[in-house]
Specification:
Strand order of the largest sheet: 1-9-8-5-4-2-3
Number of helices: 12
Distance between the termini: 19 Å
Shape: globular
Radius of gyration: 22 Å
């Protein structure tokens, strides 16, 4: 067998392209097409009224709420607007702080800043999610929200996070966008915080192309979100928005989900167990095959049997070893990269580091209500996270992976490990 590394001129283990990481998207079939066509034929793509309204968005909301085991769900135009709507409903604005982990989707920071609040960046641990042990030090009298993000397919360590939050009377928002279908000992993520959001964008575990969904057990919070996602009002039985119907009236942002996406979402939600099951079982099998390899530490999973299985993720003992190992695996045809390729880490977001203003007056950083929030986002301020990022590598595990893909990954991993570790 030729064991010369491809990076040194040897033959790569895998020469065909790695399967695409669009979990829900690659499961599209006749069911999604028929669901969309049903709405089109009914000439009723708007969720609140039409020629022959099919109420697909209502159905998606009901089925998603049932899946999570919560009382209310609200489908909206995108995951990003779901975050903004939820934060608006929670009162994020000038004079408030929101704790966000260093490993994030940029929308989590965007929503805080656009609402003129101040994001407070907190360290991650070996889950690559919010570190509960270091969380308490970030809480101040201005802390209005803890944003627990379940990044790259895996759950944050929710129970100790919730304990810290309860101790200080701070609500927790779960951002489940990258990990829908994940659970912690039988409890679905998205059902544990006061409110949760998920993205249904194209490369998520289930997708409507673009879209988002909010979930909560709190009726008042749900009603606030309902008004915000529309034009600020609730609607009558005829589906027409009317002022004066609700005590929760406000100013809305017009982020309603349409019926075509609602119909597709219903189909995708039914496929979620199969999609996540394929990734999870693959992840477990690969780690079992690699368990004897020394000098690597798998990403810590709060509940391996409840993980979505979207990534194979591990740590090396040193950053330089991770860099070399990643280069060698990529040369073998296996897409091993730093977490999200280095994007969506707080240290790599110039607008945050430079505190780029969103108004001509310099807000939110110069807002007088935020004068007590003197924050420094320079990369050296999050040294623990940086060290974890630099030692970590990830390989996407799409649900359409074949057995041969899995075998190639294992073969390449062993080949590189035998030479480098």
């Amino acid at each position: 067998m030729d064991d010369k590394l491809a990076i040194d001129g040897g033959k790569p283990v895998k020469t065909k392209q790695w399967p695409l990481m669009y979990p829900g998207g690659t499961f599209y079939g006749n069911e999604e097409a028929e669901a969309a066509i049903e709405v089109i034929r009914a000439q009723s793509p708007f969720r609140y009224y039409g020629v022959d309204l099919k109420e697909k968005v209502n159905q998606l909301e009901s089925e998603y709420a049932k899946y999570l085991g919560v009382r209310y769900a609200l489908a909206v135009g995108s995951g990003s607007t779901a975050l903004t709507i939820a934060m608006m409903a929670l009162g994020i604005g000038p004079g408030t702080e929101v704790i966000v982990p260093t490993f994030m989707w940029i929308s989590d920071v965007n929503s805080v800043v656009l609402l003129r609040g101040i994001p407070i960046i907190a360290e991650i641990d070996e889950t690559l999610n919010l570190d509960p042990e270091l969380l308490e030090s970030k809480i101040t009298p201005r802390t209005k929200l803890i944003d627990a993000i379940h990044m790259a397919g895996s759950a944050a360590n929710m129970y100790p996070i919730l304990e810290v939050a309860k101790k200080h009377g701070v609500p927790v928002l779960e951002d489940c966008s990258q990990a829908v279908g994940t659970s912690i000992f039988g409890k679905p993520i998205g059902s544990m915080g006061l409110i949760s959001i998920a993205s249904l964008q194209y490369n998520k575990n289930i997708t409507t192309g673009e879209g988002g969904i909010i979930a909560t057990n709190d009726k008042a919070l749900y009603k606030k979100c309902l008004c915000i996602q529309d034009i600020g009002f609730e609607r009558g039985e005829d589906g027409v928005s009317k002022a004066g119907l609700s005590v929760y009236e406000t100013f809305g942002i017009g982020s309603r989900m349409d019926e075509i996406r609602g119909a597709v979402g219903c189909v995708q939600l039914k496929k979620l167990p199969k999609i996540v099951g394929a990734m999870r079982s693959r992840q477990l099998r690969i780690w079992d095959a690699l368990k004897d390899i020394k000098k690597i530490t798998p990403r810590r999973l709060v509940d391996p049997n409840g993980d979505s299985g979207a990534y194979l993720s591990w740590f090396h003992e040193a950053a330089e070893t991770a860099r070399v190992f990643g280069e060698a695996l990529r040369a073998e045809g296996i897409p091993a990269n730093p977490p999200h390729g280095g994007v969506h880490q707080s240290r790599n977001i110039p607008t945050l580091i430079n505190k780029t203003a969103v108004t001509t007056k310099g807000c939110p950083w110069s807002c007088p209500y935020n004068k007590f929030s003197e924050v420094n986002y320079r990369p050296e301020k999050t040294s623990r996270s940086n060290e974890l990022f630099d030692r970590n590598l990830m390989i996407p595990l799409p649900p359409i992976m074949t057995d041969r893909d899995g075998e190639d990954l294992i073969k390449a991993f062993r080949k590189v490990a035998n030479k480098i570790l």
